[in-house]
Structures are given as C-alpha cells and as structure tokens.
Amino acid sequence: MSRDSRGTLSRVPPLNVGNHQPLTPLSADQAWRATADRAADTVLFFDFDGTLAPVDDDPTAVQPAPKVLAAIEVLAPAMQRVAIVSARPVDFLRDHFDGLDGVDLYGLYGLEHSHSGGETVTEPAALPWVPTMAELADLARAELPAGALVEFKRLSVALHWRTAPELGPAVERWGREQAERLGLRVQAGRMVLEIKPPVDRDKGMVIGEVVRTAAGAWYFGDDVSDIKAFAALRARAAADPDFVGVCVAVANPETGQEVAEAADLTIDSPAALGDFLTAAAHQLG
Ligand SMILES: O=P(O)(O)OC[C@H]1O[C@H](O[C@H]2O[C@H](CO)[C@@H](O)[C@H](O)[C@H]2O)[C@H](O)[C@@H](O)[C@@H]1O
Known about the structure:
- By secondary structure, the chain is an alpha/beta fold.
- It folds into two domains: 176 residues, Rossmann fold; 72 residues, Trehalose-6-phosphate phosphatase related protein, domain 2 (Alpha-Beta Plaits).
- The strands form three sheets. Strands 7-6-5-4-3-12-13-14 form an eight-stranded mixed sheet, with helices on both faces.
- Helix 2 packs parallel to helix 9 and helix 6 packs parallel to helix 7.
- The structure holds ligand L263DTV3.
- Ligand L263DTV3 binds next to strand 9 and strand 11.
C-alpha cells in the first residue's frame, strides 16, 4: 500500500471485499477521511497477538511489528482513545506498550483494564477463580502430553499446540472436559484453547461500553474472539446512522477466512498493518 499524490491511502481494497452485500458503504480511503473529520471522537481498537504482533511459537517472545508503535504514538493524541483489547494480561500488554501515552489496555478479554497508564483494575467477580485457574494449570502440566504448552494467566489458562499440531484434538478435548467439570468457559483461538472463569466479559462487551459516546471506531483483529468486537461496532452503527464503524481483519492461515468474512477489509499481516497505520497517521496528521 502507498499514498498517492493527494495523500490518500491508495491500493487499499474497498470495504467488504469478498462479501456480496457491503456492510459499510465506504471505501477505506473514505472511511479514513470520515475519521479525519471526527478523529477526536473516534476510538481505535487493536487486538494484540496476530494483529499488532506476528505469531511466534513462543508466546513470551512476541513483539509488535515494525512501525506499529511509532504509528500508534502519532495517532493516539489525535483520537478520542486508542485501546488494546487482548486475551493477554494487562501486565504483559504494559510491558509492550509502556511509554505510549494515552493508550488504554484491556486484558483477559476485559477482565482487567488500565486506563492511560493507570493502575490495573480487575473485574471483582473473576477474582474468586484465581485458585481454580492455578490448580487447572498445574493439572494441565501434569496430564497433557509433552509438546502441549500451558500458559497460566492468573484468570485464565491457555492450552497451546502450535509446535505440536497433531496434539490439537486431544488437548482441545481435555480442555473442554475440564471446563465442563469445573464450571468454566472456553474460548477457541489460533492453535489454542483458552479456559476462563464463568464471568460475562468479552471483547464485544468492552467495545460496546467504550463506543457509547464515540462518533466512530475502528477495530483491528485476527481471531474468532474479535468477531464479537466487530458485532459490537455493527450494533452501534445500526443504532446510529452517523456512527462510522470499520472492522478490519488481519489475514492468517487459521482463523483468517472466518474473521475476514465478518470484516469490512482485510490487511495481509501485522507488518502490513504497520504500513497501513503509518499511512493513516500521515493522512490524519
Ligand atoms: O487476544 P489476543 O491478543 O489476540 O490473544 C490471543 C492469544 O494470543 C496468544 O496466543 C497466540 O499467539 C501466540 C504467540 O504468537 C502463538 O504461539 C499462539 O499459537 C496463538 O494462539 C496468547 O499466548 C494467548 O494467551 C492468547 O489467548
């Protein structure tokens, strides 16, 4: 993607590529123009893994793609808010976005949040589940085959099989059985099954709350949990024809098709998103 002589985002595909009925009657370029007119009332939401950061076999090793942090740094002061909405804990997100002013962090699907560098607040209804999650992580390490990776996140446990794809069905079966036994919930993802407390909180609920007073929002995501966030933007737009909501998928071989079908446009990769945001920052600047 590049900027043409008028400074617009050229070569961005029209919204809803691949969909028969456009969900948003704007091109990406028009959407950014509409955003420029109302930037101070618009929120930019980003998923983290697979969206801002390329996937890595080791979940502890990921880093934001080139240009992403610099572009967000330019965009944030122009927008009403910039928020990262992730299944990662807030502390993990803070380590990767520290120093970026005015960025809100929503972790563990919104069970935790921190506004603009402030303290981390945890959803009180989730706190009694910490010991259950710790025990579940220990059990997973003891019972799952070597090759499965257990990620304990205080209020959730992620069971990974990226480095041993043949284990996927067995790991997923084990996780679903344990969730049923303990009265927990599951969230499927990219070569991962996440087990969570039975507390009503997801990315869609976060987005629905934050956009109540906004005039527009963009959501960038790559995984099935992000489709709930898209739906929240659709609901806000359906209730207010003046609201500009844009849902952007980041392509990937696992969940890419399902997410792209729910989105207005698809970007090739986290690195391409870095380019896209850099061009947007120029356009809004
Ligand atoms: O909501 P997100 O920010 O997208 O988090 C979703 C999951 O992301 C991480 O797992 C994914 O990325 C890993 C690192 O690239 C990769 O190894 C794994 O296969 C992916 O599923 C994270 O580790 C999970 O806890 C999140 O649920």
